[in-house]
Amino acid sequence: MLEIGPGLGSLTLALLEAADRVVAVEIDELLAVALPQTVAERAPDRVAALDVVEADALRITELPADPTVVVANLPYNVSVPVLLHLLATFDSWRRGLVMVQAEVADRLAARPGSKIYGVPSVKMAWYATTARVGSVPPSVFWPVPNVESGLVSIERTDPPVTTASREQVFAVVDAAFAQRRKMLRAALAGIVGSSSAASAALEAAGVDPTARGETLTVEQFAAIAEQLS
């Protein structure tokens, strides 16, 4: 299991009961140093099963073991970038359960047509199927935050079949949501050169030029990217 931001180690101790091996990535030097000591005191028979990596989760490219599962209480301000980085960098993990801010959880699991469907929803759909599977009240944390938390399950899936690269598809997604509620022919004009060129590409991809980004699936964004590339 891979854990991001283990902090004082309460979740780490629980993971060590269930996993053959836990790799914990911690950016804070003091916490990273203290975690093995905590495990040694509270679960001495599991010390050898823990690897602590002192690093920024947004920058890691190597780990001491290939993760198969990600379980983490993710920092609220970087939860989406961290998830996308982990999905892009470590393709060995097939499922995960993460805790994030409730609003972020809703966005990650949103489906096309929802008011909260946006860039995080589409980019997560490129990698995996996500679902909101629970809520966590502030009262269980110390210190107590002023936000609700949500649990999101992640099941890795194959990306859409397309000749466009992930970078090309994500560029289309970013442009489509840069100005919400804008028709796609206008939203994509900037990366194509004109509204008429965008309309032609959208029609070739089988997408209505007057549609808006929040109604499209990741497969449709991939089809548009194919036409633009």
TrEMBL record:
It is found in: Cytoplasm. Pfam families: RrnaAD. PROSITE patterns: RRNA_A_DIMETH, SAM_RNA_A_N6_MT. Signal peptide: none annotated. GO terms for molecular function: 16S rRNA (adenine(1518)-N(6)/adenine(1519)-N(6))-dimethyltransferase activity; RNA binding. The keyword Metal-binding does not apply. InterPro entries: KsgA/Erm (IPR001737), rRNA_Ade_diMease-like_C (IPR023165), rRNA_Ade_Mease_Trfase_CS (IPR020596), rRNA_Ade_methylase_Trfase_N (IPR020598), rRNA_adenine_dimethylase (IPR011530), SAM-dependent_MTases_sf (IPR029063). Residues 1-158 form the Ribosomal RNA adenine methylase transferase N-terminal domain. Belongs to the class I-like SAM-binding methyltransferase superfamily. rRNA adenine N(6)-methyltransferase family. RsmA subfamily. Its main location: cytoplasm. It catalyses: adenosine(1518)/adenosine(1519) in 16S rRNA + 4 S-adenosyl-L-methionine = N(6)-dimethyladenosine(1518)/N(6)-dimethyladenosine(1519) in 16S rRNA + 4 S-adenosyl-L-homocysteine + 4 H(+). CDD domains: AdoMet_MTases. NCBIfam families: ksgA. Its EC number is 2.1.1.182. This is Ribosomal RNA small subunit methyltransferase A. Keywords: Cytoplasm, Methyltransferase, RNA-binding, rRNA processing, S-adenosyl-L-methionine, Transferase. GO terms for cellular component: cytosol. Specifically dimethylates two adjacent adenosines (A1518 and A1519) in the loop of a conserved hairpin near the 3'-end of 16S rRNA in the 30S particle. May play a critical role in biogenesis of 30S subunits. It is an enzyme of class 2 (transferase). It comes from Microlunatus endophyticus. S-adenosyl-L-methionine binds at M1, G5, E26, D51, D56, N73.
